[in-house]
Amino acid sequence: MKIVVQRVKQAKVEVEGKTVGEIQKGFLVLLGVTHSDTEKNAEYLAKKLCNLRIFEDENEKMNLDLKQVQGKLLIVSQFTLYANCKEGNRPSFTDAAKPDVANNLYEYFCKQCENYGIEVQKGIFGADMQVSLVNDGPVTIEIEG
Question: Where are the domains of the chain?
Answer without folding.
Answer: 2-144
